[in-house]
Amino acid sequence: MKLDRGGGVVPLAGLFVLLLPVLFPSLFAPLGHASPSMLSEWNAPKPRHLRLFKSALQEQTSNGLESDLWMPPANQGWKTCAESTTSMLPENSQGYLQVFLDGGLNQQRMGICDAVAVAKILNATLVIPLLEVNPVWQDSSSFMDIFDVDHFIDVLKNDISIVKELPDEFSWSTRDYYATAIRATRIKTTPIHASANWYLENVLPVLESYGIAAISPFTHRLAFDNMPMDIQRLRCKVNFQALSFVPHVRALGDALVSRLRYTLGKNEVAGTKYLREVTDAKGKQGAGKFVVLHLRFDKDMAAHSACDFGGGKAEKLALAKYRQVIWQGRVLNSQFTDEELRNQGRCPLTPEEIGLLLAALGFDNSTRLYLASHKVYGGEARISTLRKLFPFMEDKKSLASAAERAQIKGKASLLAAVDYYVSMHSDIFISASPGNMHNAMVGHRTYQNMKTIRPNMGLLGQLFMNKSMSWPDFQQEVIEGHKTRQRQLRLRKPDQSIYTYPAPDCMCHA
Ligand SMILES: *[C@@H]1O[C@H](CO)[C@@H](O)[C@H](O)[C@H]1NC(C)=O
Ligand SMILES: *[C@@H]1O[C@H](CO)[C@@H](O)[C@H](O)[C@H]1NC(C)=O
Ligand SMILES: *[C@@H]1O[C@H](CO)[C@@H](O)[C@H](O)[C@H]1NC(C)=O
Asked: Which UniProt keywords apply (predicted)?
């Protein structure tokens, strides 16, 4: 299962979790959503690091530890240069290229960028990519429901030709057509991270014979290394310029951002607007600023990590059972003890732990935190310690009315799109677990020189295991261990994803 070549920072198992729905869709259909009557699988999770937590609560007065806490990264001598592609539209199209994309929003996003690149390599006309319905997230939103399709076509108009739909003569080329039999126009065996030559040798002949080629699966199918520079830059141009969300997602995102910056949604009940100026933060360094915390802590993640999250015996049993049903012993992590996993940094941070990390880094209880997340395993009980440290913690629900959220309700991709948008407008982004969202933000925010904190999972795992650690020692270790994990631009290494590390391929020396 060596699919993770792209993320680099993602432990294999982490990416495996994210790919599971793709790999074993049938397993997910019946189990993807826990039954509504959440039987008590855990004894309400209590703080696990009570000593640290109590100290963190007391020490919260802004101690000015890091005066540059909110500062954006310094100019590091890089600027974007994806714009400067001077490519030419091919005179003759070799035919239509169709791709079918699995995964959640961020995985599909990379697939779209790669599809444009492959169309360019082949001089093909790209059909707007088809987004498969993910068995876990169950969202049937199409490309056009999520992204501004006219903007997409317009930004790329000098690079490749794009059509919204196939012309009538090819209208037979549908998902159902390929699902029901072996078809000559389907490319089914694209290797992971295939080279440009692979496409020229294997897909071009199909285009030439039939005028169309449909690639499925297509996720993670284009190499990051040994690609022509103009192809790399084109991929970044798609990711960072051509892909813009539909207007209603951007409008909701803008509303959330402005409420985070200028008002407090605290005590705001849907319908009864209770907004007030941020007076208490006036004059402080973090005034008007906010942190986005991405917290993916659902049952899949918790179970797959095989870590102990403090919910007691009931929780351990529930997670072990879930592992058995879904993965039938294929979860490699489960052969390690909790201590080993923590030492290796393989356990997603709990809401409590990420709260302690933020507090140790110097964020105090006036910090506005936006929680980008879907359901948290363990619910509010699991989040409450984090909320005690950061009472001004908001999310889509607390900041926007039901009417405002109506258009995105229940649609995982649109909910994720709003979180993506808000995250890209935050002063600081941090994620409690490595994964696609974390990688997408690391890449996009590097591109725009915005601050992203990358938790040192291994260090934190070790610190949290030391039950006698004092707060000052914890804080010092945390600060020391994150000095180089907040603002340094990191250059892409071989095999790593251009979408996580856009320099040097898509960035130039200023
Ligand atoms: C923040 O912490 C300080 C010091 O512990 C306390 O006095 C203050 O009431 C807290 N503010 C909020 C909003 O909880
Ligand atoms: C694509 O078009 C360019 C420029 O027109 C040409 O040099 C190249 O050989 C073409 N490649 C293919 C695969 O058609
Ligand atoms: C735990 O932390 C304390 C400092 O707070 C340190 O003296 C001690 O050596 C640590 N124990 C382990 C096992 O690392």
From this structure: Carbohydrate metabolism, Fucose metabolism, Glycoprotein, Glycosyltransferase, Membrane, Signal, Transferase, Transmembrane, Transmembrane helix
